Amino acid sequence: MTDTPLVSVVVPCYNERATIGLLLDALYAQTYPRQQMEVIIADGRSTDGTREAITAWQRAHPDLTVRVVDNPPRIIPAGLNRAIAAARGEIIVRLDAHAVPAEDYVARSVAALQAGRGDNVGGRWDIRPQHAGWMARSIAAAAAHPWAVGDARYRYSQRAGQVDTVPFGAFYRSLVERIGPFDESLLSNEDYEFNARLRAHGGRIWFDPQIRSVYFARPSLRALARQYWRYGYWKAQMLRRYPHTLRWRQLLPPLFVALLVIFALVSPWVWWARGLLALQVGLYVAVLLGMGLQTAWSARAPRLFVGVPLAAATMHLAWGAAFWWGLLFPPR
C-alpha cells in the first residue's frame, strides 16, 4: 500500500448534462495527485447529450483518466457495480453526477481510510438550491434542517464520529469483495443497505464534516415529493430485510401519517378522535411554522417562513405515505 494509492471515482449517471461538467471540473481541481486518480462513469445510455459532454470534456482534459461504461438497467446500484467492476483503483470513492466535491474531498477521504477511522468514510452535504427562486431556496433549507431530517447528520452536523450511514462514501475495493456489491434489487436506499451489511460484518462507518460536497436539492415541491416517495417506498423494502436497522427518525413520518389517517377516518363518529386530530395537526403546524420562522429570520428571507414548512411537510408526508405503501404493496 502506498501513501498515494490509485483512487477510482465511480459515478452512476443518466441524463445529467446540466451537472456532469461541474462534477468533472471539481474532480480535475482535486488536491489529490491527478495521475493517481481515474473517473469511471456508469451511464444509463443518456439521451440528453451527457455522453457528448463527457467526450468533449475528456478532449480538453487528457491528463485525467475518464472512462464511460454502459449501465443498461439505468438504476444506481447497477451503475455502481458496473463502475466498480471496471475500476482499477485500490480505493473506491463513490459520487453522484449532480454532486460537486470540495477540492480536498478525495485527499481527506483517503486520509481518513488510511488512518483507520472507518471501513466506509463520508462527509457532509452543503445543500444548495438548483434555481434562484424562493421555493427552491426553501427546499434546500428544509433539506438541511434537523427538524425536517432528524438525525441525518451528514446534512447539517459539524461533529465527526461513527454513524449508521453516509452519503456516497469511500472505501477500499477489498470491502466489496468481503461484503458483496450494491444490491441491484433496490432502486433507492442502496447506500444505507450497503452500510447495513457493513455493520453486520463488524465494520465501521465514519462521518467527517471536513469531507464536503455540494448537493443540489430538488427544484420544486413536485420533484421533492417524487424523491421522498421513492425514498420511503424503497426504505420499506430495505427494512423487510434488515428490520433491526430502523431508527426513530425513520419511524416518525410513517407514524404521523398513520395517526393522521386513523383520526381523520374515525373523527366523524368519535368526538375524541376529532380532538386528537386537531391536536396533532395543530402541534405539527406550530413546529413547522417555528422552523420556518427560525430559517427566515436567520436568512433574512421572509418567504422562507412559508416555503420551508411546505417543503418539510412534503418530505414527511410523501416519505411516510410511501413507507406504508411499500409495506402493503412490495415490488413483485
Task: Describe, in plain words, how this protein is organized in 3D.
The chain is α/β, with parallel strands linked by helices and 332 residues long. The longest helix has 29 residues, at 271-299. The strands form two sheets. A five-stranded mixed sheet has the order 3-2-1-4-8. Helix 10 (248-266) crosses helix 12 (304-328). The protein has two domains: 7-220, Alpha-Beta Complex (Spore Coat Polysaccharide Biosynthesis Protein SpsA, Chain A); 240-328, no CATH class. Helices cover 51% and strands 16% of the residues.
Structural topology:
Elements: E1 7-13, H1 17-28, E2 37-43, H2 50-60, E3 65-70, H3 76-86, E4 91-94, E5 99-101, H4 105-114, E6 120-128, H5 134-143, H6 146-149, E7 161-163, E8 170-172, H7 173-179, H8 190-200, E9 205-216, H9 221-241, H10 248-266, H11 271-299, H12 304-328
- What's the total count of β strands? 9
CATH structural fold name of the largest domain: Spore Coat Polysaccharide Biosynthesis Protein SpsA, Chain A
The largest pleated sheet is described as: 5 strands, mixed
Q: Any guess at the CATH architecture of the largest domain?
A: Alpha-Beta Complex
Q: What is the CATH C level class of the largest domain, in words?
A: Alpha Beta
Shape: globular
Primary descriptors:
single chain, 332 residues, alpha/beta, Spore Coat Polysaccharide Biosynthesis Protein SpsA, Chain A, 2 domains, five-stranded mixed β-sheet, four-stranded mixed β-sheet, 9 strands, globular
